[in-house]
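2024-03-11 09:14:02 DEBUG pipeline.ingest accepted 1 chain
2024-03-11 09:14:02 DEBUG pipeline.ingest length=292
2024-03-11 09:14:03 DEBUG pipeline.predict start
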Amino acid sequence: MAKQVCQNAKQRGGTMNWDDLRLLLAVARRGSFLRAGEALGMAASTLSRRITQLEAGIGAALVERGADGTRLTARGAALVQAAQDFEAALTPKPEATGLSGRVRVTAGEGFVEPVTDAATAFTRLHPGCTVDFTVTPDLVKLSQGASDVAIRTLHQGEPSLIYQRLPDVGFGIFAATEMALQPGAAPEIIPMIGLLPPMDQLPHMKAALAAGFITTPIRVSSFAAQLAAVRQGHGAAALPRVLAKGLLEPFPKVNLPELQVFLVTRPQALRQPQIRAFVDLLKEQMMSIGPQ
């Protein structure tokens, strides 16, 4: 289908190739020209111009531009699906490895997406393996064999564990469109969705309070609950950027501290080939996301 679309574009006098499809895929996956441009190493204005040229070549709108990001048109969604199929066809199929066994992973809720992405890729690559993923804010005792792999935001310095540094998690003040666009909004009057102790002592939460975001009529016990309340328009919140897709940042100049992230394993666990293979894939997945 992607090949047919390319041929149709050429018949109209336009030019489209795999590089055009790659740009459209990035916009679809990232949800905005800014984030897609950052992933591609390209200015958002240049990327937008390239997509406009692609639309002119095809003779149809592919992307709707809005204040909260981009959305695909029906034609754009069909082309993205064709491009994904084409991308899959270009990707070499891995040979069977014969790996088998279980991998146990623990991480906080902010890392659900990259871990499940890695688990899906891993189990497809190694059908004989399974991944057990426990989502918890607690520091599971890896040294006692409670898990094989963990993603942590705290380095406890245990000599019996291996810590590998991953890209830091960035934070910002985010709100739904309606709240972010209110005229005259000031930090001290915006209702904030706070976190209950002990999470209210996280560095980014303390920094938000120091910046004047002091009105917290609602406090919750997780980032997921914060995010849900913000999306419903109940208030703003200091959120990890990786979770804030589709939200606006009404105070972009507010500087909140980043959170360090580590991939933690036991040396004994890495002697098992399926765990070692999963750690390599998960690290690659996390590194590809980059700073958020």
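2024-03-11 09:14:41 DEBUG pipeline.report The domain at 2-90 is CATH 1.10.10.10 (Arc Repressor Mutant, subunit A).
2024-03-11 09:14:41 DEBUG pipeline.predict end
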